[in-house]
Amino acid sequence: MKAIGLFINAEKLREEPEMMALSRRVLAALEARRAPVVVNQESASLLDRTDLSCAEEEMPGRAELLVVLGGDGTILHAARLAAPEGRPLLGVNVGGFGFLAEASVDEVQEAVSRLLAGDYALDERMMLEAAVERRGEVLARFLALNDMVITKRGFARLLRLRTLINDEHMATYPADGLIVSSPTGSTAYSLSAGGPIVHPAVDVITVTPICPHTLNARTVVVAGDAAVTVEVQGGGLEAMLTVDGQVGYPLQAEDRMTVRRSAHRTHLVRIRPFRFYTLLRQKLSWVER
Fold first, then answer.
1. Residues in CB range of 59: below 8 A, 6 or more apart
2. Span 126-169, pLDDT tens digits
3. What angle do CA 98, 118, 89 make, to 5 degrees?
4. Residue 136 backbone class (left: φ over 0; alpha: ψ -120 to 50; beta: rest)
5. Catalytic residue from among 48, 51, 72, 123
6. For 91, which DSSP code?
7. Catalytic annotation present for 244
8. CATH homologous superfamily for 4-120+271-283?
9. What pTM value is reported for the model?
10. Which fold has domain 128-263?
11. Is 268 exposed, middle or buried (0-12, 13-18, 19+ CB in 10 A)?
């Protein structure tokens, strides 16, 4: 292995003593096995290990695999960086929900040992890519593991979102917004908006309106190879595209966003069999009476 990237949530590292202790413990475990290590720049500085510092955008090029310490948000951030290079991620949950993480804080020593021994499997996840057009010109492109979301900004006025599937007009939603989600993202914002839970292996994209001003609007599940186009209609309205809840891009009236399945995939390290329905029961607190 040419190197392992240690991708640490710097905000948690700065504010939480437990995160500092965990990061030092993981780093020591890797170095004890003589594994070459690089650490994202801000976290390396906080750990007083600037000798291992690496710019975030350069980590997938220098590391063969990333160990991610943080919550689901940190894993989403790392996934967008790692996917174009095909680098796998081992997520260690130091956050709240932890849907994407493989190991807890208590399991981190075992996870690192299994990782260095090559005793793990890879779980592939669909990603989405979006292109934003204005008057026929592509202004920006984005990659997401969870979702692409268009919402209103500014005053509390409804958006009118004309939605097409493979250039076929499906609906025009008067709503607060619209979520275009991958199967992995079905348990994130889409679930909160009433969308379905989709197993990560199912090759589909879901389209879920947010607070639609109509009684007959429902989530629509489309084929994984479909193109979902959303047009922002109405003069004077301002909207925002949010990628994985982390990257924002302002939209104007008549802008178009087209979302497709990406050629890039996220590869999550698994050190045990992945049991999706057990995970659902645990994370969503489904209990038997």
1. 5, 7, 38, 40, 66, 81, 82
2. 999 999 999 999 999 999 999 999 998 876 678 999 999 999 99
3. 30
4. left
5. 72
6. E
7. no
8. Probable inorganic polyphosphate/atp-NAD kinase; domain 1 (3.40.50.10330)
9. 0.94
10. Tumour Suppressor Smad4 (2.60.200)
11. buried
